Amino acid sequence: MWMVSALFLVAPARTGSTPVAPSGTRDLRYAVLTQGRLSGSLVAEAGEDGITITYEYTDRGRGPKLTSRLALDGQGLPVSLVTEGVDYLKAPVEERFTHDAYGYSWISGSEKGGQLGGGGNGDPHAFYVATNATPFEIGLLARALAETPTGILPLLPGGEARLERVDARTVASAGSSRVRVAQVAIHGLDFAPMRVWLDADGYLFAQLDPLFSVVREGYEAAVPELWKAQQESQTRRAKETAHRLRHVPHGPVVLRHAAVFDPSTGTMRSGWTVVVKGARIAAAGPDASTPAPSGPKVEVIDATGKFLLPGLWDMHVHQSDGDGLLQLACGITTARDLGNDIDHATQMRADYRSGAAIGPRLVLAGVIDGPGPRAAPTKVLASTPEEARKWVDVYARRGYEQIKIYSSVAPSLVPVIIAAAKAHHLRVSGHIPTGMRAAEAVDDGYDEIQHVNYLLLNFASKDADTAGTGRFTLLADLAARLGDLRGPEVRALLDQLEAHHTVIDPTLNVYESMFTSRPGTIAPGIEAVESWLPAQVRRNYLGGGLPVDDKTDGPYRRAFDTMMKMVGRLYEEKIPLEVGSDAEAGFGFARELELRVEAGIPASDVLADATLRSARIMGKDKELGSIDAGKLADLVVLDADPLSDVGAVRRASLVVKDGVLFDPQALFAAAGVRRPPLGEPAAAAVSWIFPPDTQATIAERAHAIHR
To answer: Number of structural domains, the chain?
Structure first.
């Protein structure tokens, strides 16, 4: 066990606002890296009134720019906070928090609330987590947790954080200065523990993930070493979770009296028996004609009143550690990763295959982008034919099955990439690069197009910048011009898609959130699970989508309506559709299914798209996609009929992947999700608005503080 003296101090009594900074240091500077490339900065400066934090980075024309001023008490807990700037999507941010003798109060663009008490010695106290908390503030939370005797603190507006001490090591700067840093994991902020590295004084040293890193300036070269250590600790945790939650039968498993969905006909076949032996389906058919094995090792499951689906496919994910729990809990047994760190994705695929981690079968697609200010967060960048061919070869050697072309690829390189991919028998898909139109990409050989917005952008000016946020904001005007999507120019594009057998991956749930979410209201599609979520996770869905005002509100809503109509038109024209979420693991997929139904597609077709047709697209329908003898045993047992309510996938009672059994309730719990037991009504959603009996007292005080 590592030892860092500052993390074991006895917390002093509350003494009021006290500026905080490492001894002898006036400021701390950090580099923000995107796949090793400098993309921003974070600076924390200590002054007489507290700490000022400036934080910004750029990501494809997006990225936050924030200034936070906060003061801490003697225990390292915030007593005041003011944050201003813009968030990741460039929406304005103005957030304030105060803790004084009256209690706590906070207000932002998405929340307003308060709590009496907590203002004196012996009273309850908590750590306020800002809606747009910077990495440095997360480090301050870790420091405050480390200084508590239990390593646990209540959070505001809700929830609880717990600190797990992981390990420590010494790293060197570019100038050979050496510093001891400690890895800790904070439980309670997200579905998976949030890991940060602290210096010897307990302040943020680094926060890392596969794509983005924040690290103390001068120590950028230490990121690979720290990331490796962080991955090793995450792997240990994943193995422990997998050991606890995977149930490997000792003999055959028999599911009796089930209603089984047949994706080839779109119907439910009642009164069926399915027998699983090892990793495969041994038999499947009507109860009367399907004998079931017997013996002490046979597990028999009475599926009377249950509905049995083939394992579901999410055809658009960007897999992160911990996503697998939510995906399997929602019945997703296969997922296609459409862009990730090449090394991280390969390792996750291996861990899922071996059972070292819980997650779906991963099909990998490798992203290629062009260099420049709008480049995707990837190390795979190509500006010449030689570089493009090299990266296609690398992906093929790694066992990737698809190439995804991104927005900043030079149009002249698109045919080069496609030819190289086809030489390796790889599928090709992607965004439509700036300077191209969807019609041109289809003619060049795209097998599929990601995101329905690119079909609408086919009718924008070729000079339009679609590598940045223009690929979203331009849709408002385009939707108005295209009307009911039955004009000749739309007809021509649909005919072209049909002629080339081009598959479309719409990701409607992404655009629903982006175009129709409004600050202070839970994001559409999350209402169904709002009360299940950890308190701090729930807050993430209150922030709204694109920056909106009275002028853009209506056009943005109409833009999303047009995207829904486009998906309905694609279905009418029998253009193949994939079901991909590109959003929150599991929950985004469930919402995508619902939106397809709302777009006018029968649930039977939506479920066929998410099972057998996905398997066919990826050339895996001989092994997956339907419940037939000889295929791999990927199954989902539901309590409700998904043909009546396709969102029933959120309420699975059993999931089987490769013959291994999983309890969705336990999977959710491991991710901090508290789904009510099946059959029980969901609890009312938590609210942070002032309770009625304290409105007068706190609201008056809050008005005085925040006006």
So the answer is: 3
CA 42 to chain centre: 24
Stretch 277-289: mean pLDDT = 97
Closest by CA to 32, choosing from 162, 134, 155, is 134
Residue with tokens 């997006």: 62
Burial (Cβ within 10 Å: 0-12, 13-18, ≥19) of residue 540 = middle
Contact present, 238 and 321 (Cβ < 8 Å) = yes
Q: Rounded CA gap, 395 and 209, in Å? A: 21
Q: What pLDDT score was predicted for residue 405?
A: 98
User: HSE of 269 in the Cβ direction (CA atoms, 13 Å)?
Assistant: 20
Backbone φ, ψ for residue 178 (5° rounding): -115, 140
In a domain, 504, yes or no: yes
Q: Which helix (H) or strand (E) holds 65?
A: strand 65-72
Contacts of 14 (CB under 8 A, 6+ apart): 73, 74, 75, 120, 121, 125
3-class secondary structure, 126: coil
Q: What is the pLDDT of residue 674?
A: 93
Query: Which of 244, 260, 279 is the last residue before a domain boundary?
Result: 244
**Does residue 70 lie in a domain region?**
yes
Asked whether residue 562 falls in the same domain as residue 543, the answer is yes
Q: Which residue type occupies 330?
A: C
Measure the CA–CA gap between 217 and 43, rounded to whole angstroms.
Answer: 10
Higher pLDDT, 102 or 621: 621
For residues 180 and 58, membership in a common domain is answered with: yes
Question: What single DSSP character describes residue 226?
Answer: H
Listed residue (407, 416, 473) closest to 445, CA to CA? 416
Structure confidence at residue 117 (pLDDT): 72
Verify that 156 and 219 share a domain, yes or no: yes
Q: What is the pLDDT of residue 118?
A: 62
- Model confidence at 566, in pLDDT bands (50, 70, 90)? very high
Last residue in a domain, options 601, 634, 656: 601
Bond preceding residue 157 cis, omega within 30 of 0: yes
195 and 258 assigned to the same domain: no
Within a domain: residue 287? yes
CB 65 within 8 A of CB 10: no
The pLDDT tens digits for 667-692 are: 999 999 999 987 666 555 444 333 33
The domain that holds 663 is classified in CATH as 2.30.40.10
38-55 b/e (C-beta count within 10 Å ≥ 16 → b) = ebbebbbbbeeebbbbbb
Residues 205, 252: one domain?
Answer: no
Of 114, 113, 66, nearest to 88 (Cα)?
66
d(CA 323, CA 593) in angstroms, rounded, equals 18
Q: Can you give the residue range of the structural domain that contains 582?
A: 452-601
Contact (CB, 8 A) for 358 and 328: yes
418-449 residue pLDDT tens: 999 999 999 999 999 999 999 999 999 999 99
Q: Are residues 297 and 215 in the same domain?
A: no
Check residue 193 and report its DSSP letter: P
The three-class DSSP label of residue 112 is strand
Residue labelled with tokens 């697209």:
617
84 and 229 assigned to the same domain = yes
Contact assessment for residue 130 and residue 97, using Cβ atoms and an 8 Å cutoff: yes
Determine, yes or no, domain membership for 104. Answer: yes
pLDDT bucket at 9, cuts 50 / 70 / 90? very low
Q: Within this chain, do residues 504 and 573 fall inside the same structural domain, yes or no?
A: yes
463 φψ region: left (φ > 0), alpha (ψ -120 to 50), beta (else): alpha
In order of 88, 255, 274, the CA distances from 300 in angstroms are: 50, 6, 10
Give me 450's structure tokens. 């990601």
Give the C-alpha separation, 173 to 190, whole Å. 31
